[in-house]
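ok, trying the design again with the full structure, not the truncated one.
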């Protein structure tokens, strides 16, 4: 059997594998006893998901409860007659595929729900088995949908709809040609914010994959990429989507960048390799132009840090965890790899071409480079400050979060030499700070549900979008 679980909610450690060390399923027997089996995760090509798979004896199985408050790691102690369990079947010489299950925050605090898809797309099965579960390869030619629909609890359609509409995240904002922004999220949904609107529009890309990279092409088309090398394009502002993955390898798309001609640069994390491809997305043909290898040091490296690429001044600047930056010159078609002052915690590139790294060399400190990583100097900003967004060489904004001091947004008017707290500031930690293309507005988002805007270079801030916490959306369901 084979399925995927996506962490469609907030979590501290980032990757779902940390939160879901295993799943336990229960095989029903005629004597009333339970045979329990633990299934362990694999994470190749995933971002905030994990793949679970392995051989099981033929039979009927109970899965963790779909409703709120379920114990998703050990259902075997529960009564087999509980209607909140959904069952699946395993048949001899066939692969039971359960698709993607969204682990989603409930509308009741500190609870989660599992939202399975009863009619999953079977197309990914052969590739998933090939890259992660070769022991199941002999069953690939004959896959079946493993769920037993008649065992689904009432209200499952409500749960499925709830998981999609509450897809977690305001990830990797990209400015649209109308002056708004699109954001990725973890349940295959793209959100769109339009100026003047307090709530985002929801565009379902109809793939149950975490889409964490976005781009807007010069012709106005949207791109969204994510785990399993999902790469989708919409030419009608999210109404319809088509796959433009083409010949990209299986991995996680961690960055999308587009130049003024419409050429797109796709950064794929494939195992421990960072590969960059270029091409025109409507053709689906991609050419590898650069490749780098990541390393991990148990003393200084920070788990969960992903590579990221920035298109700046005719160069592709790629952070390569844990301690390098690669600079690819588009004109000369050559790359150079340079060492960083320490292991990456956070890395960014400002509009003025400066590189910024919060790097760990047994202590995390901020560093700046103004020559594409050839030399680095300690930043004048506080070590408690997150990555700044610079509108130009002089003006910028950033979040300051001292443990024992004042917290909030700050601004600089002198190239980061001094920073001043804003008069009005977001009351929660913003994960992403950025400027509009014309530099007239600065924005900040907590990557979850709030977007703030500043019209005066960060001197004051106001909320322009806030996604309300779900309330009562599961009412009337037996899963409530």
């Amino acid at each position: 059997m084979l399925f995927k679980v996506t962490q469609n909610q907030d979590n501290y450690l980032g990757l779902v594998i940390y939160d879901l060390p295993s799943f336990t399923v229960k095989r029903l027997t005629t004597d009333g006893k339970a045979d329990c089996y633990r299934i362990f995760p694999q994470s190749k090509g995933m971002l905030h998901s994990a793949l679970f798979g392995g051989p099981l004896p033929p039979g009927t199985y109970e899965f963790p409860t779909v409703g709120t408050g379920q114990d998703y790691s050990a259902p075997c102690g529960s009564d087999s007659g509980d209607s909140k369990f959904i069952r699946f079947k395993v048949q001899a010489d066939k692969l039971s595929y359960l698709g993607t299950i969204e682990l989603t925050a409930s509308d009741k605090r500190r609870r989660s729900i599992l939202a399975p898809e009863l009619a999953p797309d079977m197309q990914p099965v052969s590739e998933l088995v090939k890259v992660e579960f070769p022991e199941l390869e002999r069953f690939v030619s004959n896959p079946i949908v493993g769920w037993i629909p008649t065992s689904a609890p009432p209200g499952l359609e409500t749960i499925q709809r709830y998981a999609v509409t509450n897809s977690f995240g305001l990830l990797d904002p990209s400015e649209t040609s109308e002056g708004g922004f699109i954001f990725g999220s973890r349940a295959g949904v793209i959100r769109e914010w339009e100026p003047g609107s307090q709530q985002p529009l929801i565009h379902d890309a109809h793939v149950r994959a975490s889409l964490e990279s976005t781009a807007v092409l010069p012709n106005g088309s949207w791109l969204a990429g994510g785990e399993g090398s999902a790469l989708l394009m919409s030419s009608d502002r999210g109404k319809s989507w088509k796959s433009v993955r083409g010949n990209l390898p299986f991995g996680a798309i961690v960055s999308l960048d587009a130049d003024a001609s419409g050429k797109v640069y796709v950064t794929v994390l494939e195992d421990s390799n960072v590969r960059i491809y270029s091409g025109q997305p409507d053709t689906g043909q991609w050419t590898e132009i650069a490749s780098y290898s990541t390393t991990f040091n148990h003393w200084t490296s920070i788990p969960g840090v992903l590579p990221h690429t920035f298109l700046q001044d005719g160069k592709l600047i790629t952070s390569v965890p844990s301690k390098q930056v690669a600079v690819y010159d588009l004109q000369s078609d050559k790359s150079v790899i340079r060492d960083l002052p320490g292991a990456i915690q956070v890395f960014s590139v400002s509009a003025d071409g400066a590189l910024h790294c919060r790097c760990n060399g047994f202590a995390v400190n901020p560093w700046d480079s103004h020559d594409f990583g050839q030399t680095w100097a300690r930043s004048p900003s506080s070590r408690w400050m997150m990555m700044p967004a610079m509108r130009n060489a002089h003006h910028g904004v950033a979040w300051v979060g001292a443990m024992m001091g004042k917290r909030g947004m700050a601004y600089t008017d002198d190239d980061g030499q001094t920073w001043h707290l804003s008069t009005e500031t977001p009351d929660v930690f913003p994960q992403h700070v950025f400027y509009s293309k014309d530099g007239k507005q600065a924005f900040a988002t907590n990557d979850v549900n709030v977007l703030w805007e500043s019209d005066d270079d960060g001197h004051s801030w106001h909320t322009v979008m806030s996604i309300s916490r779900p309330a009562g959306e599961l009412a009337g369901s037996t899963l409530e």
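Keeping the full-length input from now on. Residues 12-18, 67-74, 78-83, 471-480 have pLDDT under 50 and may be disordered.
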